[in-house]
Design brief:
Length: about 350
């Protein structure tokens, strides 16, 4: 099956040099994986900004937040016998894993969906707070329900990786609701309406000894307390999504079912997108799944960067048949692409589905 995405000709839309660092001693390395929403007749992105101090020759340095919520830098010789630097996203020191960068969320908006800027009159920087976010916050998904925007995002600390919730009606006052799924869990996409009287969300806990990086669904009466957990999607041996799967943005309601765009990765950490269809009345039932990716790293900006060969999405807008999808490419830049819902459904419902 062919890649179904129509990429914006203006890609990449945002790169690290377009973003001012959160503090002068930091350098923006990655601008990635945006949550997306409409507000005040504009398109808004909640970017993930990954920063670290400029790297000195022969050294590796990375930031973490201390108990007083100040950023401090740890620095080691690159050839220190206790340092492991096999994956650019991590620094392993003496068997302990750290992130090589610290991420915060940054709000930008646009009148045309292509040119983005930081608005003056909104709090645009959302930083990690407290001991469950000391390694930063990442990958925000935004779901609007009855006038309130619900932000789910990854909270990272030495205690693990969990899912946090913030809520806002006006983007000026944002309330933090704490961790709603403890470690290890991420990729939380809330459905934008109740189904049979309950809220639902997709999420991705990770099995350590038994199980794997599979997609789960959970239900809630209040969006804060979740239960009725069920595993709905496994990885597939020998496939592009053999190592991990996780939901993209909020599922899209179609006459045939809830359409979910998801990411899958293989053992080489190559991230592509696929799609599944969930039953409209019972979203714990998967009706169809694409065999091949609907989008894969093809462009130079999707193949090369801080962590190459990655297409990762957690935000889109839907207008009739069109999905305006924003995505992080190579964990470095923000890009846009459109999909036709009909085209994805044709694959899901057809012979190749
Ligand atoms: C994880 C997350 C994402 C990131 C991918 C690829 O799934 O940290 O934010 O884009 O890995 O590195």
């Amino acid at each position: 099956m062919a890649d179904l995405a129509i990429r914006y000709p203006q890609n990449p839309l945002l790169k690290p040099s377009d973003i001012t660092p959160s503090q002068p001693e930091m350098k923006v390395e990655c601008v990635m994986n945006p949550g997306v929403f409409n507000f005040d007749n504009k398109t808004w992105l909640v970017l993930r900004i990954a920063e670290r101090p400029s790297q000195k020759k022969g050294k590796v340095s990375f930031p973490i937040m201390d108990k007083n919520e100040r950023i401090k830098t740890l620095e080691f010789d690159q050839d220190h016998p206790l340092i492991e630097l096999t994956d650019p996203r991590y620094v392993i020191y003496n068997g302990e894993s750290y992130l090589s960068t610290i991420s915060h969320l940054r709000l930008v908006c646009s009148d045309d969906g292509v040119h983005f800027y930081e608005p003056d009159d909104y709090p645009t920087k959302l930083k990690g707070l407290g001991n469950l976010e000391s390694f930063g916050i990442e990958d925000c998904r935004v779901t609007k329900i009855n006038g309130t925007y619900h932000l789910t995002f990854t909270e990272v600390s030495e205690s693990g990786v969990g899912i946090g919730l913030m809520q806002t009606d006006d983007w000026k006052h944002i309330s933090r609701r704490g961790m709603i799924f403890p470690p290890h869990n991420k990729d939380c996409a809330i459905f934008d309406e109740k189904i049979n009287g309950k809220y639902y969300c997709l999420n991705r806990p990770s099995g350590l000894t038994v199980g794997g990086h599979y997609m789960w669904i959970s239900a809630s009466d209040d969006l804060v307390h979740w239960g009725e957990h069920q595993c709905i999607l496994h990885t597939r041996d020998g496939s592009w999504d053999c190592e991990r799967v996780g939901a993209g943005a909020s599922p899209i309601k179609t006459p045939h079912g809830w359409l979910v765009i998801y990411h899958g990765a293989d053992a080489d950490h190559r991230y592509c997108l696929g799609a599944i269809l969930l039953d409209l009345n019972d979203p714990t039932t998967v009706l169809a799944r694409t065999t091949d990716p609907i989008m894969e790293p093809l462009m130079k900006y999707e193949k090369e960067g801080f962590f190459g060969n990655v297409i990762f999405t957690n935000g889109h807008l839907v207008e009739e048949d069109k999905i305006e999808m924003y995505y992080g490419a190579s964990d470095t830049v923000i890009c846009g692409a459109t999909f036709s819902i009909k085209e994805i459904l044709a694959v899901l419902l057809g012979a190749g589905g």
